[in-house]
């Protein structure tokens, strides 16, 4: 039975633990909070996935060293926590496949998850697992398809290890395109939420998604990604899901901005920091990213939504 370790017992880490354990894998699930681990051991539930039981073959731990027992380690902490997590625990994880399950660009460094892995764990094999998948759907055993990207020849073996009868993984070697798809779609999900929250209408949302995708493609290609990757699950697939679903936290955050409503700052919204990071990278490299720049302006309070919409609509007319 292959063994898999998962760092981060939030909604996604716990959902992956359930799915992989139900498919017969031995799973070690790590969380930093001893009280949370004690509670999960007692109830066999994760508070972020109410009603879903953690199977017996999921071992819960606060010892990062226990993660080293896995043939593969999934990193399911939020993007802005990944670098700090690996600075603290990278030494025990180095030398094995490390699969980033987070979506975003690190604000401090401008790096994506595979580069953060390579910087902290030089002997590891970086990979990324991403695509359209709400944690609750995965935890309930609903059919899901994701992209597993790895530039190393171990990619096909990882694909086998992490696929289950209901969690179908498609393989890619384009780690840059795959991780950028997951990162950039969250920015567009915030924009989509703003459009709906501000009452701009579904036609405006369709325009936003389409032009948002064009800008995702532009940025990713400028960074060496393949266009086909962005058209796949991690880009187009996840863009469709999170720009149109009320389950998406990024969408709900944007909608609250559009409505001028309160949004709980404890909720993980990866697109906020990523909008800032990508807007800065795009400006430095001269890549035209009007939607991303507008999202960054609005969340930082530098532009009202009305001003952002006016600026987007008054750009020079151009070819599609
Ligand atoms: N939820 C979903 O549907 C999906 C999420 N993802 C991605 O998965 C990643 C994680 O999201 P998700 O699980 O939903 O987030 P959650 O908010 O549910 O959980 C985040 C987890 O990370 C832990 N964490 C936060 N900071 C640190 C840190 N510095 N060191 C160690 N652990 C830390 C939290 O611990 P604590 O409680 O102690 O703060 C918590 O267990 C994100 O990048 C997200 O985009 C991908 C697909 C689907
Ligand atoms: O990435 C996700 C689904 O693929 C989850 O989206 P949110 O983080 O916006 O909830």
UniProtKB/TrEMBL annotation:
GO cellular component: cytosol
Active site: 185
Binding site for substrate: 103, 249-250
Chief subcellular location: cytoplasm
Protein name per its UniProtKB record: Glycerol-3-phosphate dehydrogenase [NAD(P)+]
HAMAP family: NAD_Glyc3P_dehydrog
InterPro entries on file: 6-PGluconate_DH-like_C_sf, 6PGD_dom2, G3P_DH_NAD-dep, G3P_DH_NAD-dep_C, G3P_DH_NAD-dep_N, NAD(P)-bd_dom_sf
Record NCBIfam families: PRK00094.1-2, PRK00094.1-4
Family label: Belongs to the NAD-dependent glycerol-3-phosphate dehydrogenase family.
EC nos: 1.1.1.94
Catalytic activity of the protein: sn-glycerol 3-phosphate + NADP(+) = dihydroxyacetone phosphate + NADPH + H(+); sn-glycerol 3-phosphate + NAD(+) = dihydroxyacetone phosphate + NADH + H(+)
Gene field: gpsA
Residues in Glycerol-3-phosphate dehydrogenase NAD-dependent N-terminal domain copies: 4-152
MF terms in GO: glycerol-3-phosphate dehydrogenase (NAD+) activity; glycerol-3-phosphate dehydrogenase (NADP+) activity; NAD binding
Domain Glycerol-3-phosphate dehydrogenase NAD-dependent C-terminal intervals: 174-309
UniProt key word Acyltransferase: no
